[in-house]
Structure formats: structure tokens, C-alpha cells
Write a structure and sequence with these properties.
Blueprint (H helix, E strand, L loop, with lengths): L1 H26 L3 E9 L2 E10 L2 E9 L8 H14 L12 H18 L1
Antiparallel strand pairs: 1-2, 2-3
Length: 115
């Protein structure tokens, strides 16, 4: 009985995750959006390009010095965000956690406009 309940619970959770991901991607309107992430460390302005319901390009427009990472590391982090289409499933860069949080906040603010 307990195993059956666990399976049902897992199916319901999985189904809702798949549905919400599909909805979120299809709900994004194509275009370019600016989002700003701010905290005590400073701020970061991120330009997000959306096409076909997905964000396809990310560019730090202002605040690179506040991120605490070099250009190559930043490019890798932004690529991981694009590849995963989520900031939740991408780990912060070691030694630049606050900078990654700024980028995540900026991405959230930009995508909020795209919905």
C-alpha cells in the first residue's frame, strides 16, 4: 500500500513539473529584455534574448566587476543557464556565489517581463 502511494505521488509530482516547464517555455514572448539583480555587493544588468519560447542569449550589460568571476567563467555560467533553461538546476561558481545570485535575480526580472 505504501509503495503504491509513493508511486502515485511521484507520478503526480512529475506530471506537474513537466506541465509547468512546458507552460513556462511556451509563455515566454520573443524579444530582448533587461533585468537587474541587486544586493549589498552591487548590481548586475542582464540582457536576455528570447526566441521560440526559450531564452537563447544572455549578456551582462553592466556590473561585471560586481560578479567576482573572470570572463571565461562568466561565459561558461551563462551557457549553463541557457542549456538548462533554468537557474535552479545550475550550481553557483565556487568563490562567486553572490555574483551568480545577482545573475539569477537579473534573469528572473528579465523573464518576468517576457511572460
Amino acid at each position: 500500500m505504501m509503495n503504491r502511494l509513493r508511486r502515485i505521488f511521484a507520478i503526480v509530482i512529475l506530471g506537474s513539473l513537466v506541465a509547468s516547464t512546458a507552460f513556462a517555455q511556451s509563455a515566454l514572448k520573443s524579444g530582448e529584455y533587461l533585468g537587474k539583480g541587486e544586493d549589498v555587493q552591487g548590481s548586475c544588468l542582464l540582457k536576455v534574448k528570447v526566441a521560440n519560447g526559450r531564452f537563447v542569449a544572455l549578456e551582462v550589460v553592466e556590473g561585471f566587476a560586481n560578479l567576482g568571476m573572470d570572463t571565461l567563467t562568466l561565459e561558461g555560467y551563462l551557457k549553463a543557464l541557457i542549456d538548462n533553461q533554468s537557474s535552479d538546476s545550475v550550481d553557483a561558481v565556487s568563490g562567486a556565489t553572490m555574483g551568480c545570485d545577482l545573475i539569477k535575480k537579473a534573469l528572473f526580472m528579465a523573464l518576468k517581463q517576457a511572460r
